[in-house]
Amino acid sequence: MKTTVERIGPQLERALPAAWLIAGDEPLLVAEAADQVRAAARSQGYTQRELHIVERGFDWDALRTSSQNLSLFAERRIVELRLASARPGERGGAVLAGLAAEPDPDRLVLVTAPKLDAAAARARWIKAFESHGVFAQAWPVEATAMPGWIAARLRRQGLAADREAIELLASRCEGNLLAASQEIDKLALLVVAGQRIGVEEVLAWAGDSARFDVFRLADAALAGDARRALHVLAGLRREGVEPVLISWSLIKELRTLISLRAKLRSSSAIDRVLEAERIWPRRRPLFRKALLRLTPDRLAELQQLAARTDLAIKGQAHGQPWSLLGEFILGLTLADAPLPQAHDALPADA
Description:
Layout: E1 2-4, H1 8-14, E2 19-24, H2 27-43, E3 48-54, H3 60-68, E4 77-83, H4 89-101, E5 107-113, H5 118-121, H6 124-132, E6 134-138, H7 146-156, E7 160-161, H8 163-173, H9 177-190, E8 196-197, H10 199-205, H11 210-223, H12 226-238, H13 243-263, H14 270-276, H15 284-293, H16 296-313, H17 321-333
Parallel strand pairs: 1-6, 2-5, 2-6, 3-4, 4-5, 7-8
Helix pairs in contact: 3-4, 4-6, 7-8, 8-9, 8-10, 11-12, 11-13, 11-15, 11-17, 12-17, 13-16, 13-17, 14-15, 16-17
């Protein structure tokens, strides 16, 4: 069965299939949909949970073996896999297809993945989840639908707000559902029971947070404003923001740029591509500037630097995360800035 995350609730009321794939580039929607599936599974006796983070080098054969070796008295369990990429490779695809197609009354398989492009969506393992379980996609909320999404979210929290307050929240969050959800959670803690939220309350209570500054950093980098971007980066470091949050935001924008660049045939087509790819209207000028500034070769260099930065942040490679983040920002903002090579990323005492 193929569906969207918004329809998972009604599906769970009817039945609980044993294989689930939830994919999309909206982390909040993917996470909440997975929460719904886990809650339903727990209510039906799935008391154990195995979580597997699937990255490069993941042992698919070990997963396959462990999923088949259940004792007679084993408890029902959720086998959850979080894919870093929507392309798990030939062996990974075969194992995933087998997990979906071979039901086990004591096992529920829950897979979450990034957005699937058209080619990835045709893979055999995806079709296996469609045929034997549920494949739910999390689509971005369009700019015009953002106020309605926020209003519904407020109602779920038992809150009511003026139209102007809702539009202000939508404008502040600029399409970022996680930021909007956090602002609403904050309001739920501060609002007096029965109080209607107006613009004044939003301005007073929904102050800029470190997460909002992270997205300001990404915007400055896309705009090519190196001075401002580095200033925001320094502020985030002083505030103790984790480098992984900053890296995630910048790499997400880089992936979008690479995807957009692949669809461009000429600079005159930029606006059509930005609209077709559903880039938030207020951010289209930023992506336009970046696409005119950054060549395909430059984007490829940035992709390599992003990988090194990510590994350094995780402690899996030599390098100073904050220095690499600064180099990454310079690479995004200044088209001719030299990027560090792998040996340049080594710390002084390495």
